[in-house]
Amino acid sequence: MTPFFGKIISNESAGMGLRTLVIEAAPAFEEGVCPGQFGHIKVPNAPQHLLRRPISIMDADSANKTLTFCIQPKGNGTELICAMKPGDEVELIAPLGHGFSLDEAKNVWLIGGGIGAAPMVYTAKQFSKTADVVAITGSRSAEGVIARDVFESVCKHFVVCTDDGSCGIHGTVVAGAASIGGKPDLICACGPTPMLRAVQAFALEHDIPCQLSLEQHMGCGYGACLTCSCKTRDKDGHEDYSRVCADGPVFDAREVVL
Amino acid sequence: MMKPDLSVNLCGVTLKNPIIPASGTFGYGRDFVKFYDISTLGAVSAKGVTPLPRCGNPPIRIAETPSGILNSVGLQNPGIDEYIKTELPWMIEQGAVVITNISGNTVEEYAMMAEKLDKTDTAMIEVNVSCPNVHCGGKVFGADPKVINEVAVAVKKATSKPVIIKLSPNVTDIVEMALAAEAGGADSVSLINTLTGMAIDINTRRPILANLTGGMSGPAVRPVALRMCYQVAQAVNIPVVGMGGIMTGEDAVMFLLAGCTAVQVGTANLSDPMACPKIIEGLEQYMVRNGIGKVSELIGAIITD
To answer: Domains in chain A, start-ordered, CATH in brackets?
Structure first.
């Protein structure tokens, strides 16, 4: 594995200030790309930004060898990444981390809050090949609904939830999940910590296998620096810190202490 | 021109080249073997170990600052016994020259760890004196020349391995600390450890790091580190291992010219997993460009007249 330069193919608005970047990334496909993995993107032409920015893989096109990232400009680093133009080159390390795994599940709920819906796009595409997939996404308003067309085309159901009620269910993704009824044999979720906590509680209460994708301030991205910690609990109840980058970002809901 | 000779002798140990990943930025090398062969490095300064396992500080543990980073990992490590059983032999199997970095809360803890390491294949021991001294009300070991001297004496007594004392820059006069280490029998000093710093999120009004403060590193500290290395190298008669924001081969050359026998690369490993191999290559290219046959010709070769 080695960091590589990829050419920006396109950079489009995804609403609410989000940008969707498609990047040439042939080396990323050498070992395959799993749903829920991330790319660690170097801020272009900005040596003052020493750390890369960890961005979840929204989509992976193995035929054209491109990766798609949906990025929320939050500070100068992500702003510079989002300002790149088609034809520009960016350095990244990808794919990194452990993603979602379908195992033997046949009936899956994918829950994404805010930009946490982004990794669910590739997850929905992959998992819908062998399982029934329901996608539930939450956003502030109708404008923030990501990748509606993809979710509508590959999922059995697509449930939109908005904080302001401007689209779909007026409420959280947990309200959206409750509206479906029935019980999946796997839940995968990515989003803000309060949302993950609610999904975790729901899954544990109903005894549903659940995988949560976490976010943390990150250093190296490949496991060495031990800075992107999250608290985890093993089978014996012993608590320790795990590495979001290398042990995660996807963890079993039973082991994460949120 | 022939391939230049990058090898150096550090405390009687021959290193292939003077480039060493710094403790805490390289783990035990396990996360780097998918990127390159770690036996190509001069040596590896392993993630600091303590007498007992430590789970480290709560997150957030890292913040980016202009041309630098702040970290407060809190010495997360598996403890000296597990390290000796699992991590040290694994690094040696990979062909790495290992510098074991130890941290204690008392002089006795340092001596105990050095004694355990004496029977192992670690090439050297690096003593991190930037920890709070529990017998001195939590005052940092590295801020008191008397205590540095005591630690050096105790560790040297406990082992026949070469001992490097890693100095903190958070002192009024680092030269005094280096002289105290030398007087205590240290075979070498390494510097600088991180500078204590802080960052605040103005939207939440909270410190970014859960630990409030952290250690600052990266190119932002490089001029300070270089000045300290130069002053220490002028004052002591033992080899100096320099570090502080080295990102390129050219940066490494600066520290060699300032009098360092070898250099450590820290923050750059977080920025780019290939940082160390690139720095070795950059150093070699500098030597070729300037017709320098042996890297040892660069050590202390600064011209000040």
So the answer is: 4-96 (2.40.30.10), 107-215 (3.40.50.80), 216-258 (2.10.240)
